[in-house]
């Protein structure tokens, strides 16, 4: 990659607006990572759940520890792509010069969950319901909003990360309004009467489309500016979907690496939490993973892995988890999508057939036996009700209930949608603990004091 190409991708939005030259990649990407790590949004991930409640144990993962593991795995995937990026003649394959640096991939991985609201997907659905007539809510869209506007590094442009880092974080390059516009079923839902008793609300009908807010369209267009018109059109096109939200089909190179790291952390590290909590038995593992036809076809490990994973030794479990992760990391390779011109869209990191199939099996196993069991879904539902009630009260009484800084933004907002987005941003930024304590303070008669510091 020549210096001119490099400077296009290291450019920050403020550089672009002020017509300033970009700084070298080694400086920019290191600072991108630093800005994410030192942001308030990143610190708050320590009090947002991954799967289990924060009070269950100090051992289980939060969004913060999950993000750190994704960053570590992401670096490992890049290192492996470098290792296998040498041809038989000892020369580097063309894709190697386009691989992200370790600083860059870590910045992307650490930032990928910044927009997740309290109570995970449950909170996301609740916020989308309350914002359904005001631009919607979606966790990935909120991540870009933090990077572009809400982060504290600059007054108006958020954390102001480089163009390539922003591209890597954008998992779904489509505008929210455009996605819901082509979903006729969802358009009919939007005409339904407001539900005031939230306990009667069918939450699963209000899952948001994977997208970006219309409010961030300027930064969205700026990120995609270096691509040709044909690449931009293909990159943002939606795939057909019956009775559901359409999604984009393609992701940038760095995003494919980050998503593989995220999937590995979800399928394997979250499995470790489930085993530790004894939510998954050895017999269940044996029946649904080890003896599954898909696993039998590839057999990436033997029964010794089961012995270690279900041993009473934490060292044994750690060894098994580390071995599984290593197998997945070593299964990465670089594919090409010839429909795209630009290398950052043409090159796609993928897992080999066997590793991809087994990782998908592990993800389904965790989803079925952990994520969707009643005990977990009940806590998610409780979190949804907290978010819905908080939003309802803040919307009705912004002057009394919003913090001073948020209320000042509310007063300065020029449209009703902008006002509602202020409330949404405030709730989305809450940790599980903060949201629960605020709910108790407002709605539990015996709780709360003017001296409370939430």
UniProtKB/TrEMBL annotation:
<comment type="similarity">
    <text>Belongs to the dGTPase family. Type 2 subfamily.</text>
</comment>
<dbReference type="Pfam" id="PF13286">
    <property type="entry name" value="HD_assoc"/>
</dbReference>
<keyword id="KW-0378">Hydrolase</keyword>
<dbReference type="InterPro" id="IPR050135">
    <property type="entry name" value="dGTPase-like"/>
</dbReference>
<dbReference type="InterPro" id="IPR006261">
    <property type="entry name" value="dGTPase"/>
</dbReference>
<dbReference type="InterPro" id="IPR026875">
    <property type="entry name" value="PHydrolase_assoc_dom"/>
</dbReference>
<dbReference type="InterPro" id="IPR003607">
    <property type="entry name" value="HD/PDEase_dom"/>
</dbReference>
<feature type="domain" description="HD">
    <location>
        <begin position="63"/>
        <end position="267"/>
    </location>
</feature>
<dbReference type="GO" id="GO:0006203">
    <property type="term" value="P:dGTP catabolic process"/>
</dbReference>
<protein>
    <recommendedName>
        <fullName>Deoxyguanosinetriphosphate triphosphohydrolase-like protein</fullName>
    </recommendedName>
</protein>
<dbReference type="InterPro" id="IPR023023">
    <property type="entry name" value="dNTPase_2"/>
</dbReference>
<dbReference type="GO" id="GO:0008832">
    <property type="term" value="F:dGTPase activity"/>
</dbReference>
<dbReference type="InterPro" id="IPR006674">
    <property type="entry name" value="HD_domain"/>
</dbReference>
């Amino acid at each position: 990659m020549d210096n001119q190409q490099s400077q296009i991708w290291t450019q920050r939005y403020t550089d672009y607006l002020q017509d300033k030259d970009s700084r070298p990649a080694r400086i920019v990407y290191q600072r991108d990572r630093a800005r994410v790590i030192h942001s308030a949004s990143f610190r708050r991930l320590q009090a947002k759940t991954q799967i289990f409640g924060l009070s269950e144990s100090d051992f289980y993962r939060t969004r913060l520890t999950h993000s750190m593991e994704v960053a570590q795995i992401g670096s490992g995937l890049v290192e492996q792509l470098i290792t296998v990026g040498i041809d038989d003649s000892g020369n580097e394959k063309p894709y190697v010069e386009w691989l992200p640096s370790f600083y860059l991939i870590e910045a992307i991985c650490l930032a990928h969950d910044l927009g997740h609201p309290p109570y995970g997907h449950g909170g996301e659905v609740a916020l989308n319901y309350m914002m359904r007539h005001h631009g919607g809510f979606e966790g990935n869209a909120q991540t870009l909003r933090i990077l572009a506007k809400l982060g504290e590094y600059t007054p108006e442009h958020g954390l102001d990360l480089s163009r390539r880092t922003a591209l890597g974080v954008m998992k779904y390059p489509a505008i929210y309004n455009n996605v819901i516009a082509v979903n006729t079923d969802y358009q009919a839902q939007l005409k339904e009467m407001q539900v005031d008793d939230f306990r009667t609300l069918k939450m699963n009908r209000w899952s948001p489309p994977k997208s970006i807010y219309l409010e961030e369209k300027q930064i969205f267009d700026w990120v995609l500016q270096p691509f040709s018109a044909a690449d931009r059109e293909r990159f943002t096109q939606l795939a057909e979907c019956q009775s559901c939200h359409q999604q984009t089909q393609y992701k940038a190179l760095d995003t494919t690496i980050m998503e593989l790291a995220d999937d590995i952390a979800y399928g394997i590290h979250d499995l470790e939490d489930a085993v530790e909590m004894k939510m998954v038995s050895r017999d269940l593992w044996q029946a649904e993973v080890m003896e599954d036809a898909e696993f039998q076809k590839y057999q990436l490990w033997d029964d010794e892995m089961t012995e270690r994973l279900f041993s009473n030794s934490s060292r044994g479990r750690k060894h098994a988890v580390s071995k599984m992760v290593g197998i997945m990391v070593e299964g990465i390779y670089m594919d090409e999508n010839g429909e795209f011109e630009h290398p950052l869209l043409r090159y796609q990191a993928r897992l080999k057939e066997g590793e991809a199939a087994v990782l998908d099996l592990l993800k389904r196993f965790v989803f079925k036996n952990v994520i969707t069991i009643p005990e977990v879904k009940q806590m998610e539902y409780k979190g949804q009700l907290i978010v819905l009630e908080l939003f309802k009260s803040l919307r009705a009484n912004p002057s009394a209930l919003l913090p001073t800084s948020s209320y000042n933004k509310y007063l300065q907002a020029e449209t009703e949608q902008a006002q509602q987005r202020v409330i949404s941003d405030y709730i989305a930024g809450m940790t599980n603990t903060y949201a629960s304590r605020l709910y108790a303070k407002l709605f539990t008669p015996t709780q709360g004091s003017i001296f409370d510091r939430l």
